[in-house]
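Need Type II secretion system F family protein's 3D structure for a figure. Predict it.
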Amino acid sequence: FYLPNVVLAMKIKRRKRDIFEAFPDSLDLIMVCVEAGLGLDSAVLRVVEDMRDARPAMAHGYELLTLELRAGLAREKALRNFAARTGVEDVSMLVAMLIQADRFGTSVAESLRVHSDMLRTKRQMLAEERAAKIGTKVLFPLIFCLFPALYVV
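Structure prediction for Type II secretion system F family protein:
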């Protein structure tokens, strides 16, 4: 009875991790496209084409966003649906920022740049945190595998 739930939870976790890892790169691509003069919708469509093979989970999320926008759904509603589908906090923060930029008429490119810089900093901090934890993870195998061999010699 528990196996299907465990398998589903593992797949959900893997998909969220894939989206979390691909999101900063996709955001940079969207930012470049918007700064080059494309609209947000066209930029997202371009990113879907570029990321389809490399990051299918992220590309699928953007593709559904594009389909909702083409179907006539309001941009705010489509963006909120996108954030709900991904379930990643960074995507939800971006969606809130884009909705605010759209509502108040501020520059979408500038909002994307600020969010992209924030994500880059966050990614760097996570990498440093993981690197700091490696020492404690290596300690256990070192004590039980390497030290006994040294004592024998």
